[in-house]
């Protein structure tokens, strides 16, 4: 290739890199807020309801799993007893995740900023 063509190609490539760098170098800012968003109050209410349903479901799993574990152990059915323990544990984990969910989301968002 002719040296002049190589030089022209290099200048064109460096110009493209400079343009791309300028476009990518600008900071983007975001401040999440629900104020003024249409339906923001309803979305917050729906999230609160979902949290309550999750806690009810976790309690139900804990109670059903515990009962299954207890009755199955008493009846000598180790397979069902193990299943009952798993369901009860899932209920406990569900309650923890429901309780820690908002804190975890806020912590991860603030850590990334």
In short:
By secondary structure, the chain is mainly alpha-helical. It contains 3 helices and no strands.
Low-pLDDT runs of 5+ residues are none
Question: How confident overall, as mean pLDDT?
Answer: 86
What is the chains' assembly state? single chain
Shape: elongated
Amount of beta strand: under 5%
Terminal CA distance reads 48 Å
Tally of helical segments: 3
* Biggest beta-sheet profile: none
Secondary structural class: mainly alpha
Total DSSP E strands? 0
Q: Note the run of SSEs as H and E.
A: HHH
If you compute it from the alpha carbons, what radius of gyration comes out, rounded to the nearest whole angstrom? 28 Å
Q: Helical amount among residues, as a percent range?
A: over 70%
Describe this structure in words.
The chain is mostly helical. It has a domain at 48-113. The protein has three helices and no strands. The protein has helices spanning 3-25, 40-75, 78-112. The longest helix has 36 residues, at 40-75. It is elongated and about 90 Å long. The mean pLDDT is 86.
Q: Secondary-structure blueprint of this entry?
A:
Elements: H1 3-25, H2 40-75, H3 78-112
Helix pairs in contact: 2-3
Short key terms for the protein model shown above:
113 residues, single chain, mainly alpha, 3 helices
